[in-house]
C-alpha cells in the first residue's frame, strides 16, 4: 500500500514538475508566455547579423536612451509653452496699461458728423453774409471713403486769452494711406466760399466758431464729398506745449521769417530783447547738394508765430497759402523727428501730449495707432493745399463779397464736381474715384 502511495506521490510530483496540475494552470500559462517570449528573443539574437557571441547580453540596452529622449522633447515643449504664455500675458498687460493710460488722459469728445439732408439756412442772423441766398453746389452722393485710408482732420483753433471759441486757423487733413504707404497732408483753405449747414454760404473758417469740430467736419463733408473719419483739435497753447515737449524743432528759415518771429515776440511782450533769435539759435549743416544750410532752433512759442505767419508789411512777405505751407512744414518736421526716436520715446510723447488734444479718436483706436506708429512713420510724406495755389483760374478765382457792409475776399471754386474729383484722387489714390467702377 505504501508502494502505491509512493507511486501516486511520484506521479503527482512529476505533474507538478511538468506544471500539468489544474492548480498551476495559470502559472504554467504565464511561464509559457515568458518562455515563448525569451525563445523569440533568442531566435532573433541567433539570426541577427549584429548578434555577438555573448548570449548573456540583454537585447533591451537601447531602451534607456529612448526613454531619455522623450523627456527632453517634453521639456523643450513645456519651456516653449511657458515662454509663449508669459509673452502673451505680458503683452496683454502692456496693451491694457496703454489702453487705460490713453483713456484716462485724452479729451474724448464724440460728434455727429452725418451730413444733413438739407443745407437750408435755419440759423441765419444779422451777422451772416448778404450773399447767403446764392445757390451753392454741395455734394449729395454717398461720402467717399476707403477702409485702407484713415482721414483725421487736424483743427488748429484760434482760441486764446481765455476764449472758449474762435475761428479755425488751421484745417489740415492727415490721411494715413496704408494702401499706398503714404502720409498725406491736405490744407483746406480757410477763405474758401462754402455752404455751412444751417448758416448759408460764407468762409470755411467760420464753421468752427459757429459749431465747433462737429460743424466743421459736416461742412467739409458736405462740400468736398469725402468722409472725415476722426478729428483732433489743438489750440494755440496746446500747440506751444506740444512743441516744447518735443524739445523744439530745427527748421530752415529765411532772414525775413526770422525777423517776423522776433518782431511778433517783441511786440507782444514775450521776450526782453528785439532779436531773440541770435547766432546761438542757428545750426549749420550740409544738404544733399553739398550746400551749407542754416537751420534755426525754435521753441513752442516761436514755432507758433512761424506757423501763423502770413506776412506783415515791412517785415515779411506772404499770404494765406504761404502760411498753410509753413504749417505743413512744421508738421512734417515733427513727424521726421519722431522717425528718429525709439518706441519708448514715441509712447512717452503721445502720453504727454494726450491731455492737450481734444478728439473723437477712441482709446482702443489710439492703442492700435500707437502699436503701428513706427510703421506709419516710415511712410513717405506728401502735402498740398485745397485748392492748389498753382491752379488759380482753373480750379478757383478770388472774389469779393460784402459781409455786413464789409468787403471780404473769398476763394471761389469754379467747378465743384471737377474739384472734388481732384481732391478725392489725391486723398485716396484712385483715378477719378467718384465714378462708379
Explain what you see.
Residues 10-44 and 118-135 have low confidence and may be disordered. The protein has 11 helices and 14 strands. α5 (236-245) packs across α7 (300-307). A 7-stranded mixed sheet has the order 1-11-7-2-3-4-12, sandwiched between helices. A 3-stranded antiparallel sheet has the order 8-10-9. It has 2 domains: 2-38, no CATH class; 106-271 and 298-428, LCP protein (Aminopeptidase), CATH 3.40.630. The chain has helices spanning 2-17, 25-47, 63-105, 206-224, 236-245, 255-267, 300-307, 320-339, 343-353, 363-376, 416-428, and strands at 107-108, 149-157, 168-177, 182-188, 193-196, 200-203, 230-235, 249-252, 282-286, 292-298, 358-359, 380-386, 396-403, 406-413. The chain has 437 residues and is of the alpha+beta class. It is 43% helix and 19% strand.
Radius of gyration: 41 Å
Query: Under CATH, the topology of the largest domain is which?
Result: Aminopeptidase
Fraction of residues in helices? 40-55%
Q: Briefly, what CATH class of the largest domain?
A: Alpha Beta
Strand order of the largest sheet: 1-11-7-2-3-4-12
Question: Termini distance?
Answer: 119 Å
CATH superfamily placement of the largest domain? LCP protein
What sequence of helices (H) and strands (E) makes up the elements? HHHEEEEEEHEHEHEEHHHEHEEEH
Which stretches are poorly predicted, pLDDT < 50 over at least 5 residues?
Answer: 10-44, 118-135
* Count of runs of 4 or more consecutive helical residues: 11
Instruction: Tell me the overall shape.
Output: globular
Strand content: 15-25%
Mean pLDDT: 78
Structural class: alpha+beta
Q: How many domains in all?
A: 2
CATH architecture of the largest domain: 3-Layer(aba) Sandwich
Let me know the largest β-sheet: 7 strands, mixed
Number-wise, the strands total 14
